[in-house]
Design goal:
- By secondary structure, the protein is an alpha/beta fold.
- It has two domains: 11-200, Rossmann fold (3-Layer(aba) Sandwich); 229-329, Magnesium chelatase subunit I, C-Terminal domain (Helicase, Ruva Protein, domain 3, Orthogonal Bundle).
- 47% of the residues lie in helices and 15% in strands.
- The chain is built from 14 helices and eleven strands.
- A hairpin with a 2-residue loop joins β6 and β7.
């Protein structure tokens, strides 16, 4: 690295340390309501800072709803929750046109998707036409009602939840929609000490109310700054090697994975891996991406983007095991 670029990176590092100062404050505020679950809180911040959506998988009662609601309050954002059920209609999500008999005109009634933070609870409980109603909102950040198109307010974060236990009467998300989620996070139970604190917090009456500590403009500014984080060509190559290894394992000396993978990550996987790595280094208050940042977010970005063959399912091979093998073999810069 020449002297000029070294100076540039030093200046960028100082800028990002200043711009990311609110992260600690935001985490502290959310922790007033959430005990433990550091992984979930960090991933929510990753999604918020990189403008991506998150699919959370975990059994009921792990504070998924409380986490996103707390985050929305802490950043002064508008929060809405949609409970997905088999009888839900697309209009219940995005809104509809209502005819006014007095004026003989149609007026727009906006749906709950018009918020900064949208919780799509148990998204796999409703049929495909309702799930797809979210697609335009998630990808284009806009909603079309009748002949009018409405831009959604920024920041816009969809957090969808899935219950891995009860699969009866559910509609699995199509691959095209799953791919729209930047991260898929698996939430696990808290440990004994954390659960002890959860019990105390919920049975006592002195719960602390969450206060807004950051405004939406600061979040939008942070989203712009995340994209300025420096990523070396070697890190870009590392990301490409990982994603291409999911598509062509043979070309990366991973012949044993060939019969286990039906399809690998799309170019969206590469984009999201780069963006999530930049957001992760921003959270760590660093102005440049290191290989550890890529490895830290790799499982969340890729676990829902690798298709498993029947052979893999028969052998109980998971996408996480495949990602681990790829990370073990692909050369770290």
């Amino acid at each position: 690295m020449d002297q000029t670029s070294a100076t540039d990176i030093r200046a960028l590092n100082e800028k990002i340390q200043a711009k990311s100062a609110f992260i600690e404050l935001l985490e502290q505020e959310v922790r007033k309501a959430i005990v433990g679950q550091s992984y979930m809180i960090e991933r929510l911040l990753l999604g918020l800072l990189s403008g991506g959506h998150i699919l959370l998988e975990g059994v009921p009662g792990l504070a998924k709803t409380l986490a996103i609601k707390s985050l929305a309050t802490a950043v002064s954002g508008k929060f809405s929750r949609i409970q997905f059920t088999p009888d839900l209609l697309p209009a219940d999500v995005v809104g509809t046109m209502i005819y006014n008999q007095k004026t003989h005109e149609f007026s727009v009634k906006k749906g709950p998707v018009f918020a900064h933070f949208v919780l799509a609870d148990e998204i796999n409980r409703s049929p495909a036409k309702v799930q797809s109603a979210l697609l335009e909102a998630m990808q284009e950040k806009q909603v079309t009602l009748g002949e009018q198109t409405f831009k959604l307010e920024r920041p816009f974060l969809v957090l969808a939840t899935q219950n891995p236990l009860e699969q009866e009467g559910t509609y699995p998300l199509p691959e095209a929609q799953v791919d729209r989620f930047m991260l898929k996070c698996i939430i696990t139970y808290p440990n004994k000490e954390e659960e002890r604190l959860i019990i105390r917090q919920n049975v006592s009456q002195n719960g602390k109310a969450i206060q807004p500590v950051v405004n939406l403009d600061e979040i939008l500014e942070a989203q712009k700054t995340v994209r300025e984080v420096y990523m070396d060509e070697k890190i870009e190559q590392y990301i490409l090697d990982i994603v291409f290894a999911t598509r062509h394992p043979n070309g990366h000396k991973l012949n044993e994975l060939e019969p286990l993978i039906s399809y690998g990550g799309s170019p969206r996987a590469s984009i999201n891996l780069a963006l999530a790595a930049k957001a992760y280094s921003f959270i760590k208050r660093r102005g440049y991406v290191i290989p550890e940042d890529v490895r830290a977010v790799c499982y969340d970005v890729l676990r829902h983007r690798i298709g498993l063959t029947y052979e893999a399912e028969a052998e109980n091979v998971t996408s996480e095991q495949i990602i681990s093998k790829i990370l073990d073999v692909v050369e770290v810069p």
